[in-house]
Automatic annotation (TrEMBL), chains A, B:
Pfam families in UniProt: Peptidase_M32 (PF02074)
Protein name: Metal-dependent carboxypeptidase
InterPro entries: Peptidase_M32_Taq
Species: Shewanella pealeana (strain ATCC 700345 / ANG-SQ1)
Active site feature: E266
Alphabetized UniProt keyword annotations: Carboxypeptidase, Hydrolase, Metal-binding, Metalloprotease, Protease, Zinc
Binding site for Zn(2+): H265, H269, E295
Function: Broad specificity carboxypetidase that releases amino acids sequentially from the C-terminus, including neutral, aromatic, polar and basic residues.
Enzyme kind, highest EC tier: hydrolase
Cofactor: binding comment: Binds 1 zinc ion per subunit.
Entry EC no(s): 3.4.17.19
Amino acid sequence: MNAKSNPHYQTLVNHFQSISHFEHLSALGDWDQATMMPMGGGEARGAAMAELAKHIHSLKTAPMLAQTISEADELPLTEQQKANLTEMRYQYLQANVVPSELVVAKTKAAYHCEHAWREQRSNNDWQGFKPNLENLMSLAKEEANIRAEAQNVSPYDALLDKFEPGMTTASLEQIFGNLKSWLPQLIQQVQDKQKSEASFTIPTASAESQARLGREIMNILDFDFNHGRLDISSHPFCGGVASDVRLTTRYDEGDFTSGLMGIVHETGHAKYEQGLPLAWRGQPAGLARSMALHESQSLFCEMQVGRGPAFLKLIEPYLSSLLGSQLTHDQLTNIYTRVTPGLIRVDADEVTYPCHILLRFEAEKALVSGELAVADLPEFWSSQMQSLLGINTDGDYKNGCMQDIHWAVGELGYFPSYTLGAMYAAQFRNAMECELGCMESLINSGKLSSVMGWLNDKIWSQGSLLSIDELMRQSTGETLNPEHFKKHLIGRYL
Amino acid sequence: MNAKSNPHYQTLVNHFQSISHFEHLSALGDWDQATMMPMGGGEARGAAMAELAKHIHSLKTAPMLAQTISEADELPLTEQQKANLTEMRYQYLQANVVPSELVVAKTKAAYHCEHAWREQRSNNDWQGFKPNLENLMSLAKEEANIRAEAQNVSPYDALLDKFEPGMTTASLEQIFGNLKSWLPQLIQQVQDKQKSEASFTIPTASAESQARLGREIMNILDFDFNHGRLDISSHPFCGGVASDVRLTTRYDEGDFTSGLMGIVHETGHAKYEQGLPLAWRGQPAGLARSMALHESQSLFCEMQVGRGPAFLKLIEPYLSSLLGSQLTHDQLTNIYTRVTPGLIRVDADEVTYPCHILLRFEAEKALVSGELAVADLPEFWSSQMQSLLGINTDGDYKNGCMQDIHWAVGELGYFPSYTLGAMYAAQFRNAMECELGCMESLINSGKLSSVMGWLNDKIWSQGSLLSIDELMRQSTGETLNPEHFKKHLIGRYL
């Protein structure tokens, strides 16, 4: 199929290639803001990013698109080109729904809110943060309502769809409802089981030595440093573009273990990006399939691989040579499988983590529907934390509802992706083991690359060429099945 | 004067504000490419930056501009708004004169030529470089001819005007002709005088300790780290935007003195940017006045302040505490005022530097007029180097006519800015001393801030609100007067 046989499709390919160039710059601006930019540069950067967002929005809503997409659909296309056209149409619809004034207003409010949040959070300054969040939430709700009307779904469903196309509140209520029915009890059982474990001291380690260690671990996971970097930011993330993936972490000199696993986690995201199909770079079909699938790759790396005994054994020599660690294998395993209800989502262990998501899911639903006012969020937070994890957060905004960046940038509907990702990851592992045998044995025998190879074949290299359900069926034989996650937790922790 | 009284002007303000937002992103992309980007990210970045350049060009040549500028000119404007409108018209004409096919052809040829030059230079491969340079020069001449016709000036004047609005070949011939009449003799005299100075060893210093030192020195110069950064790149530069100035240097662990003065130099550029008028940010009138004036600020910082005894005294304690240096004040002064004719422009001292510019000015004029063929450039170079600095460069292309990046990217007309900058700097110092008294005494008595304050008032905060001549008259009482530079050199070196 060549350009001549479908000139409309070729026009679209060129147009979306342009969009991807501007999105490249947007990704760079975001990364720089979080890692390099001095505080005082924020205002001008915010204005530049808002202008860029407006321009990208205008390209995604170009008047010619609707007709050109229809015309392209009527001429010959390969299956993959059809998939690309489907993604183009999805992006067009997603962008076209929201008026550009709202996009600009929300981008500006988000920059302002996030910028202030960085300092407000460390000062536990809820009163300072609240008005910014209220402003941003009202814009986010406006967006949700507009999307909802256009897609004929509920406002919160419309937000979920941005990150996990096709996911609904109803499905999540079922999946999360089931989770809620057994997870708190499991947490209790695991804690009882772990009660007798002896405590020990984690050696201190400088940020520099942790960064050196991090790079070694990224090499073990075959991260391509010719197409990416590792830096420091206050909130770890994986950004940049597929050809230049920028991941970040933060280092606690008193406890290297969390920064280290942060790197393993973000490397999982990065591997997905670096593995996206080269032939489809710059096209919608060349992007990662969904945010939950993105999280599934980071969680596969961190939870399935990273916290397992074989991987820990693999990295132990680096811990002793680079950090002078004398932790035994059992102690390391203990650290990385210790279940302790805590305040902070990003520091949570694999078992209590979903509780943090259940809370946020309930909060977001209620914020969007208007049942919960921003002013009442801290109280809601504390009461949910008490019922899910037995922790009171009254007055502790910093480690409560101010801890995440998501709401501070006006992003609602993302949080469920984390737990959906954990479920997908367990499902991938199960399918992989059916094909390749026990993953722990593979890693033990030096075959971590076959594990990565399986993920590359089944997920990374597929980009968005398949629907989520089709990707899951082709890679695991079934659509999302949360049972694998339950089995994984029980198998590892009981 | 408000927006209602001149809506056309307001339209232009908004339009140029948009352009500045995209230029912000362009500056970020350039900085990142030179400091942070992994090699493998280059291709996608190049494509994104080309897309951005195309977009900025389309904004600068928007069809509505010609008429809107005329209409704005017919309605009430303040003096400063008039100055802004003048700059808008200048930018519009500069961008509009050259047909976009020629811009694209030259950009491509420049990319090809520069890319190959990097390797050709290190291989001393003149035969490989020559055809690329010939191709690029013929495009540069085409551009010069088109600009010349549109502006009704000579082709080389049109190129000079891109960097130093209003500067002409005739003026430069007079200024540089005068320089040529006394500089070679001065160099000889200084060398005779310095012959007897004893040699000594410069202590080694790690890149980390040099970076710490650099930041201390930047603090002394009152660089605003809330609006800027210091990083490493293979070629030092000052980039970013006024609200977030990114300067770079490189560290030679065997000789800290050049990296250190590189930081002082780039800080001079940065101070100009940081001092540009806040009220005019994002508007053409808020930009630095010209490239020669930009160089005047870096050279003021480096040559007038940085290499003077009072500043060296100020930084000596940092050299000993951070680098363990035991260099005496006399030795340090000796390092920073030693005059040695050499092959490389960027390594040249203050006295021999203008000779490198005289050579390039003559070469560019002759290349553009056609009197000199690219093939004859090496011979021309060697003969000029012999007559100006007594150095034969026959066969040494690498350290001869292939040493600079400027021609390899098709940039002609920039070189004179360096020496004009040195002259402006000396003239500023003279005027400042008439008002504030001896600068060395001011620095000695802890009043470096009054020096910086004077520059801020007279130059930085003026942006492009005054013409170059008017700026010079208001700050120094006269237009460019090269005599001050001559007096400075004689005063410092004889």
